[in-house]
Write a structure and sequence with these properties.
The chain has no helices and 11 strands. By secondary structure, the protein is mainly beta. The strands form 2 sheets. Strands 2, 4, 5, 6, 9, 10 and 11 form a 7-stranded mixed β-sheet that branches. Strands 1-3-8-7 form a 4-stranded antiparallel β-sheet, with no helix packed on it. Strand 4 and strand 5 form a beta hairpin.
């Protein structure tokens, strides 16, 4: 069983910055796809950013230019640098790792989430 643990969430004022981390235990993820998702109360869980084993990156339109996803395979870590935060970014942020291959499936591993709250 692969375990993913998110950290770095907290309370920040609009316009501020926050950096989230995702640490993996039990397995290297150098050959897996990774991603950050978020879920606000009463809303579905949506993709924020993704990064493949080859370094290909994608972002949802609402965070382009403000968020940066990165990974350090040697440390089994993934990061999300969030700048110019807005109240609408408030949500629980989750780490996702593909299970066996380079593509996401319904069997992927998920972390427990970390709360990000942006005040106006």
């Amino acid at each position: 069983q692969v375990q993913l643990v998110e950290s770095g969430g907290g309370l920040v004022q609009a316009g501020g910055s926050l950096k989230l981390s995702c640490a993996a235990s039990g397995s290297m993820f150098s050959r897996n796809a990774m991603g950050w998702y978020r879920q606000a109360p009463g809303k579905q869980r949506d993709l924020v950013a993704s990064i493949t084993s080859g370094g290909t990156i994608g972002y949802t339109d609402s965070v382009k230019g403000r968020f940066t996803i990165s990974r350090d395979n040697a440390k089994n870590m993934m990061y999300l640098q969030m700048n110019s935060l807005k109240p609408e970014d408030t949500a629980v942020y989750y780490c996702r790792r593909s299970k066996l291959g380079s593509a996401f499936t319904s069997d992927d591993y998920w972390g427990q989430g970390t709360q990000v709250t942006v005040s106006s």
